[in-house]
Amino acid sequence: MSTAASAPVARPRYDESRLAQILVAPIVSEKATRVGEKHNQVLFKVLRNATKPEIKAAVELMFAAQKIEVASVQIVNVKGKTKRFGRSIGRRDHVKKAYVSLMPGQQLNFSGEAA
């Protein structure tokens, strides 16, 4: 029998300045609101090189005052649309979205007001 199985799981430490940059912006749209109400999730636009554990740590750090705990994180890479500007063809930037599931009974308040 191995003693490693009974050892507590060590969480990796992340640089707080990196975590502060990972969450680019919350996504506030009709779809995001619907998902938030149905699955208790919040959508964020995140850095393209961010990982799931980093996103989880960043959300818990940024909303520590509200004592938010993250249950899970799902990620979607969205390809930028090709757009035309007259004769020239351009492309919008690629975006990475994070669907952050909160623990049951928790809500995230973006307005900064007490609920």
Provide a short characterization of the protein structure.
With 115 residues, the protein is of the alpha+beta class. Helices cover 24% and strands 30% of the residues.
Description:
With 115 residues, the chain is an alpha+beta fold. The chain has one domain (13-102): RRM (RNA recognition motif) domain (Alpha-Beta Plaits), CATH 3.30.70. Helix content is 24%, strand content 30%. It contains 3 helices and 6 strands. α1 (16-22) crosses α3. The chain starts with 15 loop residues before the first helix and ends in a 13-residue tail after the last strand. The mean pLDDT is 86.
The percent range for strand residues is 25-35%
Which structural class do you get from the secondary structure elements?
A: alpha+beta
Rg from C-alpha positions?
Answer: 18 Å
- Largest sheet: spatial strand order: 1-2-6-3
Question: What is the helix fraction of residues, given as a range?
Answer: 10-25%
* Termini Cα gap: 50 Å
By DSSP (H or I, 4+ residues per run), the number of helices equals 3
Shape descriptor:
globular
Query: What's the oligomerization state?
Result: single chain
The major pleated sheet works out as:
4 strands, antiparallel
Question: What is the third-level CATH name, the topology?
Answer: Alpha-Beta Plaits
Number of domains: 1
CATH class: Alpha Beta
Low-confidence stretches: none
- In CATH terms, what is the architecture? 2-Layer Sandwich
**N-to-C SSE string, H for helix and E for strand:** HEHEHEEEE
